[in-house]
Amino acid sequence: MDIPISDLTADDLSFRGEGEEHIVLRIKNSLNVIRLRKIKVGSSMLMTELIERAQRDIIFLCKVARPAYGPLITDHASLVRLSSATVQELHEKIKHHRKGMRMHKEINNYGIGCLCPDAALHYIQRTTSLVENQNGSYTSKTEEQSMEKNSFILANENAMKPHREKQSPYIQEISLTPFSNSRTENLTGCTEKNSSYMNADLLCIEIKPKSGIIDFSVPNNSFCKFCIKNFLKVEKGNETTRSLYCPLDLFSGKKNLMQKAVDGLFITPQNNLNVFKWGPNIETSLQTGHNFSPRWQKVKCQYR
Ligand SMILES: O=P(O)(O)O[C@@H]1[C@@H](OP(=O)(O)O)[C@H](OP(=O)(O)O)[C@H](O)[C@H](OP(=O)(O)O)[C@H]1OP(=O)(O)O
Ligand SMILES: Nc1ncnc2c1ncn2[C@@H]1O[C@H](COP(=O)(O)OP(=O)(O)OP(=O)(O)O)[C@@H](O)[C@H]1O
């Protein structure tokens, strides 16, 4: 299978995030990102293998994740290929955004990736509200509403407009044609203008809560897997301080411990919390010790 080479250049792309397997780039003036598989520096992979892997991800998404979780939290994706010149330029361009522990891998030599909607620019209209129970836990007010039944809108022109009209429970097909930018340029402009009308910022919260499981195979151990790994991360120099977050607190069902967990995430977000405002993520490196940076403080006030 051959994939046409996109005419996107490094100037059209900016760093959005990175995990162990992928580097994610935002396509400027669009509502999409490209998720590019990484390979070990100095190694190479056959183009067919890279395409097969990306296709496997897409098939998993369509055949397993979407039916299981619904369209609210899963997206469409399609294959994309960047030119080798663009990939070479990107190595240099995104270098300063990347963490040292990630540098042993780089974007694959063929620039094969998946094009998908930018999750940080989705607007999801909330139709349910949470009510606090007597025991301090929360349930949805309209429990009979399934995720699919909730009305929501994906990021497109309508998503950025004020939602005065009654929304029906449907999902709008997102345009995966980011390469003609006029539509989305208008959208970006409209986004800023309408923000005062909506009187709110478009925030996207990425949380990686990990599992709250104590490893009982270790005698006398009272730490969960996350906390043990966190000790090691500090020891290896991959993190500078211990995380104040613990999944055992978050999943305890006790309000004060859950609050402690959320506070821990805001104080030491590390790899577990990311907040995006109108696309780019809010700088977390401004945090010092236990003091929230003013920007985090603002987000935190909004969540309370
Ligand atoms: O198991 P963990 O806790 O080390 O989780 C790994 C994650 O580490 P974390 O502690 O969240 O920084 C790790 O996260 P990062 O990419 O380092 O952010 C990966 O998600 C890894 O999955 P895979 O090997 O890429 O499929 C994760 O591995 P698996 O959970 O898939 O084994
Ligand atoms: N569709 C998206 N829209 C916006 N940002 C995204 C999107 N997909 C990924 N990102 C950002 O890029 C980061 C890395 O992506 P992702 O977690 O998919 O990489 P990965 O290498 O597959 O991760 P892991 O190995 O941890 O599973 C994410 O943490 C997130 O901040």
TrEMBL record:
Its EC number is 2.7.1.158. Keywords: ATP-binding, Kinase, Nucleotide-binding, Transferase. It catalyses: 1D-myo-inositol 1,3,4,5,6-pentakisphosphate + ATP = 1D-myo-inositol hexakisphosphate + ADP + H(+). The keyword Cell membrane does not apply. One of its GO terms (biological process) is inositol phosphate biosynthetic process. It comes from the Eukaryota. GO terms for cellular component: nucleus. The keyword ATP-binding applies. GO terms for molecular function: ATP binding; inositol-1,3,4,5,6-pentakisphosphate 2-kinase activity. Phosphorylates Ins(1,3,4,5,6)P5 at position 2 to form Ins(1,2,3,4,5,6)P6 (InsP6 or phytate). PANTHER family: INOSITOL POLYPHOSPHATE KINASE 1 (PTHR14456), INOSITOL-PENTAKISPHOSPHATE 2-KINASE (PTHR14456:SF2). The EXKPK motif is conserved in inositol-pentakisphosphate 2-kinases of both family 1 and 2. Belongs to the IPK1 type 2 family. This is Inositol-pentakisphosphate 2-kinase.
